[in-house]
Write a structure and sequence with these properties.
The protein has 2034 residues and is an alpha+beta fold. 46% of the residues lie in helices and 12% in strands. Strands 3, 4, 5, 6, 7, 8, 9, 10, 11, 12, 13 and 14 form a twelve-stranded mixed sheet that branches. Strands 31-32-37-36-35-34 form a six-stranded antiparallel barrel.
Length: 2034
């Protein structure tokens, strides 16, 4: 083998070298919201615990990054800028389908003038050459079309043209990989940060009452009524004017700007409809009850003038005096609730639970909230952020017009909640509580992400904070309703004190107006008051004391004060809260002070060195407090001397609650103890130490600490999460820090480790905590990612017992670095040598020795004995046998690995269950270790100790076997196994960056083997290994790990000479074999390219496997390869073409795999042809097997759906086997990979490979290309739905966004966005663009996402998918050129030619861009030039399709396409002429193509086509070489012919809206081709298609039957086979109309003439195809009887062909048809018929024409009337069209000559009596109909209706030209007969009808009582007007005078006789059917019946004696109609006897 050449060495270097470690340890500063971080006050010596906390909160994050990943993301699109702007670099591709859109509407808009209707008469189409072609201008011609160029040069030119202007990255155009599969994307955890709920901004705009006389102060807070909890601290503000502020000047020493805020940002984590904003208003204390003070506000109005003005002035003065005297005291005044329900509107609340909770850490959303979801949210949020929310959300302004007066005895929070609950129920407070009129306006909006000039609850300015703003916004601290699980990240230390109630009821009289002064003391002296109380509005920022509001004359007042205190960082025993109680005298007395002291109480802040919080009931001391009082709590003060005097004898009289919000005080016993003990180890402490209420001596320290470690996990979850970072840091410190306690070395590692495991377990198991999509707990993930760092060495181990010398710490020694460059170059050399040639010992071959050992399978077993195998059952520690590890040098990663290995029982189970956490810890600590040791210049092999490697091996083995064990268990364990599998993969992925690759490869190999050994379920196994490999393959250095440059020597390195000149034998056969094997997955390949080999093996296995759930696995496999290739394609390191060639070479075996999977691919072609219906459309069963690509394909291309066997059946190459099909997406992903390889591989190599392939394989490649074409067809811009819906959608989006913002907290989302934008954060090089691209799931995903896209996005999407379609098709074209060139040297070109043509034709039938079409036509012309002679001899069918496609493009609206198509068509004619010197065949094909094009293509444009014909004519005239031949005249003749066809088309256009007219026209065109069977057939098919579209299946079927008859005629002329139908005669049973097809006599056409009847249908299989299709349509139309007739013709042919498979399915269909007849019988709906007459000269030829129209089954008269009136109204104008409402004969003279009249009458099929004998079934009475009848009533006077004795009736019978159903839905009437019935005959008819109805009702099975009663009621009901009785009285009362009427009289009498008999039967029958409640009804009927019978009896019994005389002929003229008894339709069925 050769050395690597220099190029490869360079490439390897460029692709990122191994020498450097690719893990980088970075310190990134924390993002701090405030200008300065929140820190304790300066100058205080802090406790170790507080110091640690603060340290944790401000230290930087330590993040381990993959070096190259960041960079690859930043420049991931070096050439094109970021992916975001990528589409700007693309060229817009022009698609005809889109260029048409602009022009279309204009043609449709103008009203159609129907003057053309007049020409529809009968002129044949060939007269239409009146359009002279020569009068047109030809299009531009291609210059050198007619010059002779050698085929080779032509191909070269084409190739060069194709190479220019191509898109470099194929995958940039393809939607990114589906995220469900993207396991390799390791989500970057959210950066830990302070929790902010949904933030709302509240601005106080106005606060005023009816009168303004004094300053008022507001405080606002949120309350949750349902949870009965105050959920925010207070926000104090006031809107007092300067005048009123002046009243208080004496009491406000200074005003801090922060106290002037009038807007606040509240935060709500759990929104609900029960949240109220409560505004409380206080005023300065004054004399009198609250009610008295509020009185003036209720009665006086500002604007009342005169008197009230004086009052107001007086009140002002009064207020001023109170303010000056009592200005520092307040009294309650009023309050108002504001419900926020409308703000957190209800629709958001339905989602609240899920969304909010996942924010706060609750993951009720289910774990797989995939990346894409969260990403989509962030994308939607984008606009929220960019616009600043305010602009999107209409800010709500809430107005309150009345306040509730505060009740002095109901001020507590309990009372408030009661009030609120009442208020919520009914707003009924108004009745119970007095209200004060006033006005409060508050503006509430969603807080934007960034608010300038705001302050945190600690009064720290938040960024951005401009200097000059006066009024800041205040952030108000939230007290969430439930726990919020977000670890602390900022220092916060606040204390809230709530005095609640004081009971001085039994106290002296002096205590009435009571206030409490509250102070925070750090000693007992008055000077020790600390200014740490936060001030209120318009005052200083911090105060030393605060007074509670006063309730006038109340001895046991309630308080609602909230005192907020900033706790000092260091608390001592001296800190306490001091409460002083005063009585305030409101009246001014001479000399008396305002305050009189009542007593004291206090509360120490610390108890047992822990912060005291909770509720207390304190006693009150009535005198000065003794010294040192604060050392004890007030309840337990020891006896003093003199004794303290207590109120109520030391009972508790003062209730108070204290709450802390602190990130320093844990407020949890277990944590408190743990931290205290840890600090006692770390720093000098004096023993015994105090922990809570126990004292711990030095000896018991170790025991206590272990206990505390065990109990740590029992602490409550919330504090544990809040202090998680610190707790874990401490535990990791303990695990490696050697402790010397009392002279003994204590080892806590195991306890610490188990504690970590327990914490990990409880965090994962908590329902309230969020997990990411890999099931990793988010808190732990972000801890490892950002917070964790190697535990620091102890500063100085405590020398408590014995002096342990401080060991020097090895971690900080630096090693002298050798020059890095020198080393790296050596290393590269070593690697290049060792990897390219294992036999050459490189200087450092050790570096990758193991890689080699893995690569060669022989040495695999050698590696095993090195491994400490996890085999012996005991969990022995591999390291325990060696020397004990030196205590001082515990490395964290070694310790951790060791603990993982030695763990047992539950701990072990948990460790492996949540292995990801420990793996990430290992990796991060290893990375830091490598970073710190400066070992990076060392070889990886020696970097970590062997013992550590053994531990890792053991861990990997254990995880693998655990995973396998879980998978064998029940279903529900699967998910767990998958998670473990993924974490293991990520671990090995990271190890590849840190450890020796060979070692890691060994682990991978063991993993794969171990898994397959244990798992039997194949899909499961493949799925696991796939995810595993997919993650490994996403490694940054994946290409190098695969030694992808090794295959350089197998491909010919220099471009080889073009193959056409080189004989294939000149290649050594060895070389050939080598090339062939490059496309297969060989053992050598797997050895050389380890990971890729594994991946391909899995893919092949997945594609080959069968079984349940396999399709998901196949999707995964394909998606893995797809994402890999896509990452190479977009990787800037792989931009150079030579690199891509190498990479493509690495993937060549994939081509082999794809070819093998060919039968499983989804068949896009069939799907398209059946207009998106699912594949089987009924006739699919006939195909061999269910191979996905069935024979339909060939036809689908041809544009018709008939399933015929064709000569070039696709996939003839495949064995018949049942395959597991891939779905569309998977197939598409696989295809794009195939195209990528074909695009980037070395083209000369591909040609060589093709040249040696057997033709069967070549056919497979062509089949594959064929599917590719359909697969990447451009689907067009998703037309944006009408703008209005978009606007609507927009507004919905905004609303949705708003809800989201409210519910998800801006904070987290903003973070997500920042992370998505920040480079270098993810595990996957292409990801940052992929994020952008979630949206561009190009066309095939769009159907359902259409709504949310803007027009710009749609355009961009269309641009990208257009480019994808073009590029994909060009790659396919390149590939075809390769095939043609490679095979032109061979002999198999004919069979190949068909294949290539088929692919080309398919691509022409798809929607293609002009770019592609130009190249495609060029290739076609090259083919024609090269193989012209073959084309028309062999590939007749392809030729037909080709003609049709090229013609189609000749009618294109795009000029360039048209000129290309013309040139191609001309060449086609010319070469065919050259080949056979007779071009009848092409002529025929072109005419047929045009005919079918005209009939089918809706968007077809005849003007352009004419222009093209003119251009072709121009070519013919200029073609000098051909002038001598008859060719030019033939061309002209042909063009003229085509032109006339076009003429017809124009007319068809006119009638696009009138289906009947259109059909007539098509019918005529078809008729005019009576002499040209091919064309007639084409038009019949066109008609069939049109009918099918309109759902007239019967007519469509008839068209096909006619077509089949036509074919049969010709077949019978050609060959005389007994099994074939004898021409059209055989079809008579199907329809009597078919005989028309025999009109062609033998002399007009002999089938042997070339080019005639050469179409694919003029064969036996064509005939069968047509008939089968007809049968299918008949079946759809419900004519099952006809199906049988059709198959009678098919079966003999199938029998003759011995085609038993088809016979099976045929008989199966017959059975179904007969079943349907039985089951549906009478329920079927056949047509409804109407006679339509047209009158008026406007109709042209239609004037006075009558037609019978066949309409769908239940069409009512108004429907057809409306349709026709509407249609002709559009043609002539609505005012000119009139529908004649009656059916009387139309008198032409009475009509307005300027109007068009339409007469529509319902007609029924009419049969003679003899016919009725044959037409027995319902079907027979509705099939083959030619005669129809309608009746018109009239009287002799001219009225339509009259009395019985004057009512005549006219029956009209129409006969049509053809029988229904026919090939069209209206047939003209050719004969009309009329009969008039006299009144007595009318009576006879009516009575017969009634009798028949009765008979039917009686004999119905099962009987139908309702029906029977209805008929009976109509017959015997007493009230029936013109009922039977009246008829009898009119006609039978006396014998007629006229003997001519005797017979009628008698007949009527007999009718009545039968009638009354039937009535009797009916009454009897009804008696049997009725229920009890109908008995009376039955009696009534019976009575009526007898009455009727009695009345009729005399008339019925009277016979006419003359009729019963002996034979005696009465000479009378019997009217003819009398014989036509068929009018009495029922007669045959009635018994006539009397």
């Amino acid at each position: 083998m050769t050395q690597l050449n220099s190029l490869d060495a360079e490439l390897a270097q460029e692709l990122g070298d191994f020498t450097e470690d690719d893990l980088d340890v970075v310190f990134t500063p924390k993002e701090c919201r405030t200008l300065q971080p929140s820190l304790p006050e300066e100058g205080v010596e802090l406790d170790p615990h507080v110091r640690d906390c603060v340290q944790t909160y401000i230290r930087e994050w330590l993040i381990v990054n993959q070096k190259n990943q960041g960079s690859s993301e930043i420049c991931s699109f070096k050439k094109t800028g970021s992916r975001r702007d990528f589409h700007k670099t693309l060229q817009k591709q022009t698609f005809e389908s889109e260029s048409l859109e602009g022009h279309e509407p204009s043609t449709q808009a103008r009203p159609r003038h129907l003057n053309v209707l007049c020409d529809v008469s009968g002129k044949g189409p060939l007269t239409a050459c009146g359009f002279d072609l020569r009068s047109l201008q030809p299009d531009q011609q291609l210059e050198n079309l007619l010059q002779q160029v050698s085929a080779e040069d032509f191909e070269k030119q084409n190739e060069e043209a194709r190479r220019t202007n191509r898109q470099a990255e194929l995958f940039a155009l393809y939607p990114s990989v589906d995220e469900e599969d993207a396991v390799e994307i390791r989500p970057v955890p959210e950066c830990p940060k302070e929790h902010l709920g949904n933030r709302i901004l509240v601005k106080v705009l106005t606060l005023k009452f009816e009168i303004e006389v004094e300053p008022l102060f507001a405080s606002i807070a949120l309350y949750d009524v349902k949870e009965r909890k105050k959920i925010s601290e207070n926000f104090h503000c006031d809107l007092n004017s300067d005048q009123f502020k002046g009243f208080l000047r004496a009491h406000t020493p200074s005003v801090a700007p922060s106290s002037q805020a009038r807007s606040a940002v509240f935060s709500v984590t759990y929104p609900s409809s029960d949240i109220y904003l409560v505004v409380k208003i206080e005023k300065v204390l004054q004399q009198g009850e609250i009610g008295d003070c509020a009185e003036p506000y209720m009665v006086i109005k500002e604007g009342d003038g005169g008197k009230s003005k004086e009052k107001i002035e007086k009140l002002k003065l009064q207020a001023e005096s109170f303010c000056q005297r009592l200005g520092k005291y307040r009294m309650p005044f009023a309050w108002a609730p504001i419900s926020l329900t409308s703000f957190f509107n209800v629709s958001t609340l339905d989602r609240e639970v899920t969304d909010v909770e996942s924010m706060v850490g609750r993951s009720s959303v289910g774990e797989r909230r995939t990346l894409s979801q969260s990403r989509r949210l962030s994308e939607r949020a984008l606009s929220l952020e960019e616009n600043g929310v305010g602009s999107n959300y209409k800010t709500t302004t809430m107005t309150v017009n009345s306040f509730f007066k505060q009740e002095g005895d109901r001020l507590s929070d309990e009372d408030l909640f009661k009030f609120l609950a009442d208020y919520k129920r009914s707003s009924s407070l108004q009745r119970r509580v007095k209200s004060i009129p006033g006005l409060l306006r508050i503006e509430i909006s969603l807080a934007p992400e960034i608010i300038s000039c705001s302050l945190t609850p600690e009064m720290l300015p938040v960024k951005p904070f401009p200097e000059n703003r006066t009024r800041p916004h205040k952030e108000i601290l939230e007290f969430p309703v439930r726990e919020v699980y977000v670890p602390h990240t900022v220092y916060r230390n606040l204390l809230y004190v709530y005095p609640q109630r004081l009971n001085f009821a039994n106290k002296l009289a002096s205590a009435r107006n009571i206030t409490i002064k509250i102070q925070f003391m750090c000693g007992e002296d008055a000077s020790n008051t600390m200014p740490v109380i936060f001030g209120k509005s318009s005052g200083p920022e911090f105060l030393q004391e605060v007074y509670t509001a006063i309730t006038y004359h109340n001895k046991s007042p309630d308080f609602y004060e909230e005192v907020k205190i900033k706790l000092p960082a260091k608390l001592t025993v001296n800190h306490h809260l001091l409460f002083t109680f005063y009585h305030i005298s409101c009246q001014q007395k001479q000399g008396a002070s305002v305050e009189s002291l009542l007593g004291y109480s206090w509360l120490p802040i610390l108890l047992n060195e822990r912060l005291q919080t909770g509720s207390y009931c304190l006693p009150v001391a009535l005198e000065k407090l003794p010294p040192n009082y604060s050392m004890h709590s007030a309840e337990k003060v020891p006896l003093q001397n003199p004794p303290i005097k207590w109120a109520e004898g030391h009972k508790g009289v003062f209730n108070i609650e204290v709450q802390a919000v602190s990130s320093v005080h844990t407020q949890d016993n277990h944590l408190e103890k743990f931290f205290t003990l840890c600090h006692s180890l770390e720093s000098q402490v004096t023993f015994p130490i105090r922990v809570l209420d126990q004292k711990i001596s030095e000896t018991s320290l170790e025991h206590e600490l272990k206990l505390s470690l065990i109990c740590l996990n029992s602490s409550r979850l919330e504090p544990l999460v809040l202090f998680l970072h610190l707790v874990l840091d401490k535990l990791f410190q303990l695990s490696v820090q050697p402790m010397v306690i009392a002279g003994q070395t204590a080892n806590f590692s195991q306890f610490a480790f188990e504690s970590v495991v327990a914490i990990a377990n409880s965090l994962h198991n908590s329902k309230d905590l969020a997990k990411d999509q890999h099931g990793r707990n988010c808190l732990l993930a972000s801890y490892v990612h950002y917070v964790f760092r190697l535990p620091e060495p102890p500063r100085d181990p405590p020398k408590s017992g014995g002096t342990a010398a401080a060991l020097p710490d090895p971690r900080y020694h630096t090693y002298g670095r050798t020059s890095a460059a020198a080393v790296s170059s050596k290393l590269l050399q070593a690697r290049v040598m060792s990897s390219s040639n294992p036999d050459l010992a490189g200087t450092h071959s050790a570096a990758d020795e193991e890689v080699k050992s893995i690569m060669s399978s022989k040495s695999a077993d050698r590696t095993c004995n090195r491994m400490s195998y996890y085999c012996s059952g005991n969990n022995d520690v591999p390291s325990s046998t060696g020397a004990p590890r030196p205590a001082s040098k515990k490395h964290f990663h070694e310790e951790l690995a060791l603990q993982m290995v030695v763990s047992t029982g539950m701990v072990r189970e948990t460790v492996f269950k949540y292995a990801w956490f420990f793996f990430e810890l290992l990796v991060k600590s290893m990375a830091q270790y490598v970073h710190n040791m400066d070992k990076r210049d060392n070889f990886r092999r020696t970097r970590f100790s062997d013992r550590f490697k053994d531990d890792i091996t053991t861990i990997v083995n254990v995880v693998t076997s655990e995973t396998a064990a879980l998978l064998v268990k029940s279903q529900k364990e699967n998910e767990q196994a998958e998670k473990m599998n993924i974490s293991l993969a990520f671990f090995l992925y990271d190890l590849l960056s840190l450890m020796d690759r060979g070692f890691v490869f060994n682990l991978i190999k063991h993993y794969c083997n171990q898994l397959s050994a244990k798992l039997t379920h194949l899909p499961m196994l493949i799925s696991m290994r796939l995810e595993f490999l997919r993650i490994l393959c996403s490694h940054e250095h994946y290409l190098n790990l695969n030694l992808f440059f090794m295959n350089a020597d197998t491909a010919p390195a220099s471009p080889c000479p073009s193959i056409s000149s080189q004989n294939s034998s000149s290649c050594s056969s060895f070389q050939d074999q080598k090339i062939a094997s490059m496309f297969d997955l060989t053992p050598e390949y797997r050895q050389q390219h380890f990971l890729t080999g594994l991946l391909f093996t899995e893919l092949a296995a997945a594609l080959d496997a069968e079984g349940e759930g396999i399709s998901k696995v196949q999707r995964k496999a394909v998606s893995a390869i797809h994402s890999l290739l896509s990452s190479h394609d977009l990787d800037p390191r792989c931009v150079k073409p030579e690199v891509k060639v190498k990479i493509a070479a690495l993937y060549l075996p994939l081509v082999g795999i794809i070819l093998d999977a060919l039968p499983q691919l989804y068949d896009f072609t069939a799907a398209d042809a059946r207009s998106g219906k699912n594949r089987a459309n009924g006739s699919d069963e006939d195909q061999e097997g269910t191979s996905a690509i069935n024979q339909n394909v060939a036809l689908a291309i041809a544009g018709n759906n008939f399933n015929l066997k064709t000569s070039g059946t696709m996939l003839s190459s495949l064995p018949y086997k049942q395959y597991n099909m891939l779905n569309a997406d998977t197939t598409r992903n696989l295809m794009i990979c195939f195209l990528w390889i074909m695009k980037n591989a070395d083209q000369s190599l591909i040609r060589k490979w093709i040249a040696d392939l057997p033709s069967m394989q070549l056919n497979r490649i062509l089949d594959l290309l064929f599917i590719c074409v359909s697969c990447f067809e451009y689907k067009g811009k998703q037309s944006s739905d009408k703008v209005s819906t978009q606007v609507l959608q927009k507004s919905r989006d905004v609303k949705a966004r708003l809800e989201e913002a409210l519910l998800r907290g801006e904070g987290a989302r903003g973070e997500m966005m920042r992370r998505c934008r920040a480079p270098g954060n993810d595990r996957f090089p292409g990801l940052s663009e992929n994020l952008r691209w979630r949206k561009e799931q190009t066309h095939w995903r769009q159907a359902n996402e259409k709504q949310d896209k803007t027009k710009a996005e749609l355009d961009q999407e269309a641009l990208i998918s257009g480019n994808l379609a073009t590029e994909a098709n060009l790659i396919i074209l390149d590939m075809q050129e390769n095939i043609i060139q490679a095979s032109s040297a061979l002999d198999c070109k004919d069979s190949l030619l068909g294949g290539v043509l088929r692919v080309l034709v398919n691509s022409l039938s798809c929607d293609q861009s002009t770019t592609y079409l130009t190249h495609c036509f060029a290739t076609l012309r090259a083919l024609i030039a090269k193989f012209g002679d073959l084309l028309f001899e062999e590939e007749v069918e392809q030729c037909a399709d080709l003609c049709q496609r090229v013609l189609h493009h000749c009618s294109s609206s795009v000029d360039s396409t048209r000129s290309q198509a013309c040139a191609t068509l001309y060449l086609l004619m010319r070469f065919s002429c050259g080949a056979t010197s007779n071009f009848a065949r092409v002529k025929m094909q072109v005419i047929m193509s045009l005919a079918s094009l005209v009939g089918k293509a809706p968007d077809f444009n005849e003007e352009y086509l004419r222009r093209s014909l003119r251009t072709i004519l121009a070519y013919a005239e200029e073609d000098t070489a051909m002038q001598a031949t008859p060719f030019p005249t033939q061309v002209e003749e042909l063009l003229c012919n085509l032109n006339s066809i076009l003429y017809d088309t124009v007319k068809m256009r006119e009638f696009q809206e009138d289906p009947e007219m259109l059909m007539d026209l098509m019918y005529r065109i078809a008729k005019s081709y009576q002499t040209s069977p091919d064309l007639r057939l084409t038009w019949l098919q066109n008609m069939a298609e049109k009918h099918t579209k309109k759902k007239c299946y019967t007519e469509a079927a008839m068209c096909l039957v006619h077509a089949a008859a036509l074919v049969a005629e010709y077949l019978s002329m050609l060959e005389d086979h007994s099994y074939l139908p004898v021409g059209s005669v055989s079809f008579q049973n199907i329809s009597s109309n078919v005989l028309e097809e025999s009109a062609v006599s033998d002399d007009t056409l002999s089938p042997d003439e070339d080019g005639v009847c050469s179409g694919r249908y003029f064969t036996e299989s064509g005939l069968v195809g047509l008939l089968e299709h007809a049968a299918e349509l008949f079946s759809t139309g419900g004519l099952y009887e006809t199906v049988n007739e059709v198959y009678k013709l098919v079966i003999p042919i199938l029998e003759a062909h011995r085609d038993f498979r088809k016979l099976t399915s045929t008989h199966d269909k017959l059975q179904k048809a007969f079943d349907s007849i039985i089951s549906k019988g009478h329920k079927r709906m056949f047509g409804t018929y109407f006679r339509v007459g047209f009158y008026g000269s406007k109709f042209g030829d239609l004037d006075e024409q009558e037609f019978v129209y066949k309409e769908p089954a239940i069409t009512k008269l108004p429907e057809i009337s409306h349709r026709l009136e509407g249609f002709y109204g559009q043609c002539f104008g609505e005012e000119f069209v009139e529908v004649i409402k009656d059916s009387a004969p139309v008198n032409k003279t009475k009509l307005d000559p300027n109007k068009a009249y339409i007469q529509i009458t319902f007609v029924e099929p009419y049969f003679d009596e003899y016919e009725m004998k044959d037409r027995v079934t319902y079907f027979e009475k509705n099939f083959n109909l030619r005669r129809f009848m309608y009746t018109t009533p009239f009287t002799l006077e001219g009225r339509p209706r009259g009395e019985l004795h004057e009512q005549y009736r006219r029956n009209t019978v129409l006969t049509t030209m053809h029988a229904f159903p026919y090939i069209k839905t209206r047939i003209s009437v050719i004969q009309k007969e009329e009969f008039v019935l006299t009144p007595i005959e009318v009576a006879i008819e009516d009575m017969k009808k009634k009798t028949l109805q009765l008979a039917v009702a009686i004999n119905q099975e099962p009987p139908d009582a309702k029906m029977l009663q209805m008929v009976l009621q109509g017959s015997v009901g007493a009230t029936v007007n013109q009922g039977p009785l009246e008829v009898a009285q009119v006609f039978l009362a006396e014998i007629p005078a006229d003997p001519k009427l005797y017979r009628h009289h008698n007949k009527l009498r007999l009718c009545f006789k039968e009638f009354i008999m039937r009535c009797g039967e009916a009454v009897e029958k009804n008696k049997r059917l009725i229920t009890a409640d109908q008995r009376e009804y039955q009696q009534e009927l019976r009575k009526n019946y007898h009455k009727l019978k009695e009345n009729l009896r005399p008339m019925i019994e009277r016979k006419i004696p003359e009729l019963y005389k002996p034979i005696f002929r009465v000479e009378s003229h019997k009217r003819d109609s009398f014989h036509r008894s068929s009018f009495r339709k029922c007669e045959t069925q009635l018994s006539q006897g009397s």
